[in-house]
């Protein structure tokens, strides 16, 4: 493993020039300069190894709210030492790494901690330093927004820096919630639970520049989980609730048209340039 002192002493920058002349089958070109990319665990592991870590594991892969960055952590803990990790951020400029937490954390669009869990007392905090309300828990975050739930109350949306201030309450019986934000507009996918039979899925859209009322409220009886969604093009990848032959679907939320697609470990809407950079960084070498 690469020396931790060198890594933790500052950010490292790796820049590689993309050589992708055309998109591979794992990438689907969409409108507005966006693509849908399937990413495998093997690809992430190749990147971890190329960064110099041969005996460390990479964490779950995420993207920022705009599709400009991918990120994951690398767990450096050994022999029951205190938690130690690195944040790995992939952008069109290359790869950056810096010290990071490793307890249910999320990255904000400025590459700082948005939400994290304090390991000493299992409480959550947001980037402003404010803690979650008592007996509440984390559902999801995107952009400047967060979705929370609480014992004995309905889940709610709030601004990320002020999680106790309710912007709007969400369906009271729902416990599976994902959000995708673009500015003051928040797209919410929610269900009573994540299991196949726990439905239907509600698709709610709020434009807080116009108030707290929904501007869209639709139900999908066939849907189980929203894997990703891009507000700028109005498309989502949704896994259906068929318990015998479950599929992922690329759906145009404006028209309702959908197409069955194959997915890998992670499926993301990204800007095309970032997808090309990821492919170049993680391709198999001779």
Strand content: 35-45%
Looking at the structure, the CATH topology of the largest domain is Neuraminidase
Low-confidence stretches: 1-21
CATH-scheme architecture of the largest domain? 6 Propeller
Mean model confidence by pLDDT: 89
Largest sheet at a glance?
6 strands, antiparallel
How many beta-strand runs? 24
Number of domains: 2
- From the alpha carbons, calculate the radius of gyration and give it in angstroms: 19 Å
Q: What gap, in angstroms, lies between the N and C termini?
A: 23 Å
Quickly name the level 1 CATH class of the largest domain. Mainly Beta
| H/E element order | HEEEHEEEEEEEEEEEEEEEEEEEEEH
- Shape summary: globular
Number of helices: 3
Backbone structural class? mainly beta
Polypeptide structure, described:
The chain has 286 residues and is mostly beta strands. The chain has two domains: 1-102 and 272-286, no CATH class; 110-264, Neuraminidase. 9% of the residues lie in helices and 44% in strands. It contains three helices and 24 strands. The strands form six sheets. Strands 1, 4, 5, 6, 7 and 8 form a six-stranded antiparallel sheet that branches. A hairpin with a 4-residue loop joins strand 20 and strand 21. Mean pLDDT is 89; it is low at 1-21.
What is the strand and helix layout of this fold?
Blueprint: H1 4-8, E1 12-14, E2 27-29, E3 34-39, H2 41-50, E4 57-58, E5 62-63, E6 70-75, E7 85-91, E8 94-100, E9 106-107, E10 113-118, E11 123-126, E12 136-142, E13 145-150, E14 153-159, E15 168-169, E16 176-182, E17 185-191, E18 201-207, E19 214-220, E20 223-230, E21 235-240, E22 248-252, E23 258-261, E24 266-271, H3 272-282
Antiparallel strand pairs: 1-8, 2-3, 3-24, 4-6, 5-6, 6-7, 7-8, 9-10, 10-11, 12-13, 13-14, 14-15, 16-17, 17-18, 18-19, 20-21, 21-22, 22-23
